[in-house]
Amino acid sequence: MKLNLARDVTLTPVDSGAVLLDGRRGRYWQLNETGSTILRKLLDGETPDTTAASLSASAPVSEVQAHRDVMALVDSLSAANLVEVSQ
Questions:
Q1: What are the respective helix, strand and coil percentages of the chain, to the nearest 5?
Q2: 22: how many CB neighbours lie within 10 A of its CB?
């Protein structure tokens, strides 16, 4: 899986995580620190499995739950047209 920000979407780090700005619609989404970390890892080319493994190693969450959380974030961002997912 390859993940890219959609056209006209910018990612800006903030103290509490990150903000995604959709310049096409003038809307923004705020990600907490964990969501921001997940998104940055995926944008940098990590797989969902690798991202979930590192998340479960640094937080009190099982790798199975971490993988569900990673995929839920991807699904939410994709449904909002903020990211593009390709194989």
A1: 45, 30, 25
A2: 18
